[in-house]
Amino acid sequence: MAQTDIQDLASPAAPAPSAAPLSSAAAPHGHHAGALAALGIVFGDIGTSPIYTLDTALKIGVVAPVAPDVLGFLSLAIWSLVIVVGVWYAIFIMRADNRGEGGIFALMALAHKSAPAMGGFIAVLGIIGASLFYGDAVITPAISVLSAVEGLAVTAPALESLVLPAALVILTTLFAVQKSGASKVGRFFGPIMLLWFGTLAALGLWQIVKHPAVLAAFDPRLGLGFLARSGPGAFAVLAVVVLAVTGAEALYADMGHVGRGAVRKAFAFIVAPSLIINYLGQGAHVLADPVNGIHDTFFHLVPPALQPALVVLATAATVIASQAVISGAFAVTHQASHLGFWPRTETRHTSAAERGQVYVPSVNLVLFVAVIAVVLVFQKSEKLAEAYGFAVTGTMVVTSMLAYLVARGVWGWPVWKAAPVVAFFMIFDVSFFLSCATKLLHGAWLPLVLGVGLVLVMTAWRMGRTRLAARRRHEGVPVKIALSALRSPRVEHVRGTAVYLMEDRTLAPRAFLHNLKHNKSCHQQIVFLSIQTADTPWNDDTCRAIVEPLGEGIALVQVRFGFMEPPDIPGILKTTEQMGIHIDRKDLSYFVSRAHLVEGDEGGLWAWLRGLFIFLYRNQADPAEYYNIPPGRVVDLGAQITV
Questions:
Q1: What is the pLDDT of residues 600-629, one digit of tens each?
Q2: Residue ranges of domains in the chain
Q3: Where are the alpha helices (DSSP H) in 150-247?
Q4: Domain 33-462: which topology?
Q5: In terms of CB atoms within 10 Å, which end of the chain has fewer, N or C?
Q6: Strand 521-533 relative to strand 545-551: parallel, antiparallel, unpaired?
């Protein structure tokens, strides 16, 4: 089937109004599991950070195995964890929920609602934040699995040659099972992560008891003093400290799956204590054995006989961490497509019980290829750690900027309150980002290249849709004028119902005009269907559709879907039947408008992006699948358009 331009029906430039409040304590959909589910869904990334954080600092030489350095580094890691993750994200950022949903696009929609005059700037921030998130989605599975499997070399040095093949096999298997859906893949994630965090705490406590002096790391002055002594090397120190807080954005992005309360409870009572205790335990081990303790610190927290079991558990935890970010990439793509930042993409909903569980085959394939390539290029977790953090901290900076707009417009904070609060936390975000930026030549180029590439894709798509919509408005015919042609004796009225998908609800669909012009016919019942994407993740069924009669047998139906919802056109038609619209199901046809795009002569930035937009436009997902339309009932009509 030829590709169509139905995606342009969902224009974020004019989001549909919603009767539901922008912020609520809980999402109105699905079920909110407890803290156990939150452990499995939300905290995999940050929960596996102890495997490589201190170990990386020791291996690359930013921390020496002496008390001032170790205690100073631990102090920075602990207080960054408390302030950035515990206070900024868990308390403040998670207040900015869009009907229970979080993530960069949910935050962007809230910011746009609170400051519509800054729509262009907010869209740019959203594109940058989402692009950097994809960079994180590539690096997280690679570094997490690789760091865990490297434990094989600790248990048996002769197995070091198997580390890379084992990591590749695990990652290949992980991506292969994604089509089963996150709900099935992650059924046992919660209990496994509970065991993981319990193990972290137990191992750390065991070492702390043997070297209690490490508790001095709770003094923040040790961290500040360490940075001061490091001089220019402080940037290198912070670039490693940030590894302790990677995954903070997952608290907000995955909030809709388990609920804000469950995330906060899990972090406060399980995650934060376990992580802090384990970091302190690793520090105690290094100080107790500064010669041998600096090599694979985490896996040496247990006796050699228990190391194989720890490697297995760590591998399971890193697979869970990878699963979380992969599922997040699917959800972000789904949202971006609905909001007009990404081409129409084939999306499969993998759970009938939980809304928002999606699988995007094209994204899964691209991520798989990228992750495998990254593992083959870097091969060692400490090398990959040089690249890690840039994408995460960039997303954190964007999140804080959008959070300021939300604080002003949604929370109603005055400038004197919003500015200093956001500025305080942005000190951490910007410091981490600049520190990671110093590693551009040592690996941070990877997420930067990925991010720039995705920014170009999203920008091309956004600009192309804007120009295409302007061209249609210029050449379009108002609905009322087009309907006057139905009174012509040359037009034959045939039996059945025709559903025309509209690009612009004020203009007659081009497929309708072509049918009149070339076939000289129209159906007895005609439904003009205008689909809009709301600025909320879910839209209530009670205000899903609005019906406007246009004459005998003709109606205009305006439909609103949330940006997390699958657009189901046949389902909408069932709803309109209950509202008085007659549908002849035995003789029902769906008409879509197909555009053949050709390049114009406009110069500037658009001249560079035009070819990319046309390529993306021609290779969108099949509209019948995307809108759940029976393929045998679709009729494509279209014309050539210059962009």
A1: 777 667 778 888 888 888 888 777 777 888
A2: 33-462, 478-642
A3: 151-155, 163-176, 182-185, 189-210, 220-230, 234-241
A4: Amino acid/polyamine transporter I (1.20.1740)
A5: N
A6: unpaired
